[in-house]
Fold this protein.
Amino acid sequence: MDDYRDRISRLPDDFLLQILSRLPTKDVVAMSLLSKRWRFLWTLVPKLNFDLRLHDNTCPKFTKFVDRSLLLHKAPTLESLRVKIGSICHNADVDVSVWVRIAVDRGVRELDISYCPAEEPIRLPKCLFPCATLVVLKLENMSLVDASSYVCFKSLKTLHLLDVKYFDEQSLPHLLSSCYVLEDLVVQRCPGDNVKIVSVNAACLKTLTLHKSSQAFEGDDDGFLIAAPKLKRLDIEDYWGGFCYIENMPEVVEANVDVIYKTTERILGSLTSVKRLALCLMTSDAAYPTGTVFSQLIHLELCTCAPRWWDLLTRVIEDSPKLRVLKLRQKHIRRTSSPGASWKQPVSLPKGLSLETFKWELYEGTQKQKEVAKFILKHGVRLKKVIVSPKPSSSLLEKHEMLKELSSAPRGSSTCKLLFD
């Protein structure tokens, strides 16, 4: 019976190491107590994952465990080192610096260091910046002030910089210019990062995420400059104003633009190749240049929190001849709009809407919402499915009235199914 229960120990080392690589290192080390077969196996695991929270947020115990694990580690290469540490560790900057040096010496391929919450970021050692083996680098609340010196990440493909502090305005462009094969970039701004304008110029970049959500950035002089001709996916969120200028990116297929800029012409005007688009804008008149056509757009998700969002919907519908899926949802607290503002229905739809699926989440049944919903039902000659999800706070009577009114509305498609979720 014991032999039957321990069949897993008969598996080859390579297979067992793959399993152990998916677990926190604390659990992997604990498994060394199972039997002699497992006693030293953990030292060969190529991926190490340390999390202070798994050690009851006890810093001395955690740092000692990380030190011992790295000292006893015997794998031929260190594929991955992930460390999540907190500000309760008073010597975190020294500890992290030592761990990063060890990882670099071991030829680490993936390095993920997170330090939070904390007021001052951890300053990383200079030995990190010419690391030729790194393929993935993810940093949270770190200082890159020493990256102003020699930097060369010739193998780096993924770079995530969350709440990172830079030396000056040119630090990030200098860093990116040294990442010759970079494909995935995430930049999340933080107050006091020593940067006013984030400039991204990367020839090989395929995925770009830019976030700026802190009120400390409120104003028009903080912004983004993007030049990435090979970009496939763009995700930009900026709730505190500023600007974003983008050079033409003819290969973008998916984009999320969630900003409160006064004008977004330079953004959306560069996304005419997009197939999937999520939008939350403050303006419709200056959303994108007149004459722009989203010739490849199939899937559109539009946030209904902004004033006159229905005008933006009208524009995009008219300029998207291949639109098949439309989703409406209020993602944020609704911003003030004029209750008497009228909705100008689309006029350039000689063959009706090309929509096949229409979904409305958090539907409230206001007059404007009813106008939009009824228009789509009437002109959606290809509609197959319409899904309406009322706002949870709606009463049963209100939901019944919504269903009754939409069910009786004229439909342009005889095969359209109206579902209330």
